[in-house]
Amino acid sequence: MESKTITQKPEYGNWVSLGLIRKVFFIFIFFTVVDAALWAWLPGWLPLKITVTLLALFTLTAAIYFCFARYLFSPKGKDVQNQITDLLLSRISWNGDGKALDIGCGSGALTIKIAKKYGNAHITGVDYWDGSWGYSKKRCEENSRIEGVSSRTDFIRADASKLPFADHSFDAVVSNLTFHEVKSIRDKYVLIDEALRVLKNGGCFVFQDLFLFRACYPHLNEHIELLRKSGIGNITFLDTSKSSFIPRTLKLPFMAGTIGILYGTK
Ligand SMILES: C[S@@+](CC[C@H](N)C(=O)[O-])C[C@H]1O[C@@H](n2cnc3c(N)ncnc32)[C@H](O)[C@@H]1O
């Protein structure tokens, strides 16, 4: 009998979740049904009918856009998600001795990349895992096992705004596109301060987020100055939204059009 070797592949998911696409399609169907009913049974009311027609068209456009964005982010498309994560990885300035923390680790993609790059390090991934992306602690552990780094990684459910670690616990702290997602905290600078709290003096940090999206980070330069005054002398901001591999279609403000990296040493 022919024997087959089944090679398991890690599943890192997509920043444009199927859940989001389903929601937008559902809203499109809702508006379409209401629109059809209005045109069929309600005489007059033209402004209302046109408004509902436009809403239906808008949600259809949004649904198609998110499907395309999902394709571009995926390895089968332009692999943009992986390349954006690598931008962060390339800024980690660390010899790999000790412990690192990945805040909002999702499916463990960055946590596992760090574990593979630094063969002596132990990496902890924390996330809220509220189900929005289909990410989970189990998925992280499974990916870590498949990638052969499970003995040097652990995954903990925790809130980025209240990390369950003592001050100065880690040699490196990273976070990729998470702070803007933390719903409970409007002031995203609180999350940066919390991440820096658990970093050892002299340790390195790299945070990638929608730093150029003013709705999330209205006074970025002022906050960087405050951090400098508080003793974080070595801090740099890098505009990663200009990276040539990011297609124009993804350069909307709430997508990859406003990303940047804040990195340095404490
Ligand atoms: C866009 S995903 C990025 C995931 C991962 N960093 C990556 O690069 O693939 C945002 C992540 O933030 C997590 N998140 C949202 N709010 C959080 C919170 N309060 N504490 C910890 N993680 C949170 C979500 O569960 C999700 O995994």
Quick overview of this protein structure:
The chain is 38% helix and 17% strand. It is an alpha/beta fold and 266 residues long.
Write a structural description.
This protein has 266 residues and is α/β, with parallel strands linked by helices. The chain folds into two domains: 18-73; 80-265, Vaccinia Virus protein VP39 (Rossmann fold, 3-Layer(aba) Sandwich), CATH 3.40.50. It has helices spanning 18-41, 46-73, 80-89, 109-117, 137-146, 189-197, 220-229, and strands at 99-103, 122-127, 153-157, 170-176, 199-209, 234-239, 260-265. It has a seven-stranded mixed beta sheet with strand order 3-2-1-4-5-7-6, sandwiched between helices. Strand 1, helix 4 (109-117) and strand 2 form a beta-alpha-beta unit. The protein is globular and about 70 Å long. The N and C termini lie far apart (60 Å). Residues 15, 85, 104-106, 109-110, 127-130, 133, 135, 159-161, 176-178, 181-182 line the site of S-adenosylmethionine (SAM).
